[in-house]
Amino acid sequence: MTPTPGPDAGLLLAGTRIVEVSSFVAVPLAGMTLGQLGADVTRVDPIGGAADYHRWPLTDDGESLYWASLNKGKRSLAANFRDPEAQALIADLIVDAGILVTNAAGRDWLDHDTLAARRPDLVHVQLLGRADGGAAVDYTVNAAMGFPLATGPVGVSAPVNHLLPAWDVAAGLYMALAVAAAVRRRDATGLGARIVLPLEDVALATVGNLGYLAEAQFGGPDRERLGTAVYGTFGTDVVTSDGARFMLVALTPRHFADLTALTGTTDAVKSLETALGVDFRDEGTRFRHRDTLSGLIRSWFLEHTAVEAAEALAASSVLHERYRTFRELAADPMVTDNPMFSVLDQPRIGPHLAPGLPMAIDGRREAPRPAPANGDDTAAVLAERLGLSADRLTDLTARGIVKVSAPTAQKDAR
């Protein structure tokens, strides 16, 4: 049998097999990350795809760019989740692989105890919405975390949500870390692991780890909306004469000295220090007087073009970056000239620049691999892992237990 195309055998998790039963962001990200580290990841979905299979953004032909982007490098098995025979096949695959990552809940046949009774060293990692088993998603969790009421322009009272599903991303990376740690322990001791990760707890832990909860417990005020300012230090946005916008951050005295030198405001800032009786080498002092300092610094940028500003900033120590739209970013050298990106010819979508793992391992970067369509690998996975014959696969397909793609579709998906 021809070996299944996959990552290089020298990758960190080569030889590790994982079954993923998931939808949306966190668990698919965990599975993709583990796959990029070398694991053989099979995503198992209902026939026709889970709730995220057609999630926006879509191509003109209705293919989900979202789904394809978060499921690169996996294999896809499609089965009728309502059928006991399909459930038994999926359970057999999990027992064979020894690792399950999932956000499915309320399915007895995916329960840790049920599966671990058959394979005691099973690594079972489950994402929940809340610790009590209640449902939650990133956007509802975020509403309780304080950020929407501290984000946005000064003077706005309504909550301001952000586009980034930060808690999903953090949870997905926590899950990948949990799998890697559990596999390490299993290799050393033979012990399996039952790991439960509530999305809400990921958010709460992060808010606590950043000091926001401690600040509130010790009587600190509610965080005010700062616009683009940076709490506790000096940060501001500026606009150039041709309308480009930059974000500037001066964390250290050197950063701030370079910024004032660049903008020709050193003497004005020193005079302001004398008048106010303060020392702007202290970042807290820079924060408290941010509006006045920003007003001084912004004048220089209004008199210079984006190119002139970028050149001047690049020659200084000032932390800076130009604001970009997604469209501008996609055409920027930080994407087009970045070795993390390579051209991925994604079946059903077409060639485009796609990222691989955002780290180099032993000096190497692995190119991204295409995402499958629903059921592209059903036949191969069931034959390789469970030894099902062609006749059995034909019977299962005819009865709607599993979906087996046509050979041409399987070939195109590779």
UniProtKB/TrEMBL annotation:
Molecular function GO labels: transferase activity
Keyword Nucleotidyltransferase: no
Keyword terms of this UniProt record: Transferase
Highest taxon in the source lineage: Bacteria
InterPro entries membership: CoA-transferase_III (IPR050509), CoA-Trfase_fam_III (IPR003673), CoA-Trfase_III_dom3_sf (IPR044855), CoA-Trfase_III_dom_1_sf (IPR023606)
UniProt KW Plastid keyword: no
Protein's recorded name: CoA transferase
Originating species: Rhodococcus gannanensis
Taxonomic lineage of the native organism: Bacteria, Bacillati, Actinomycetota, Actinomycetes, Mycobacteriales
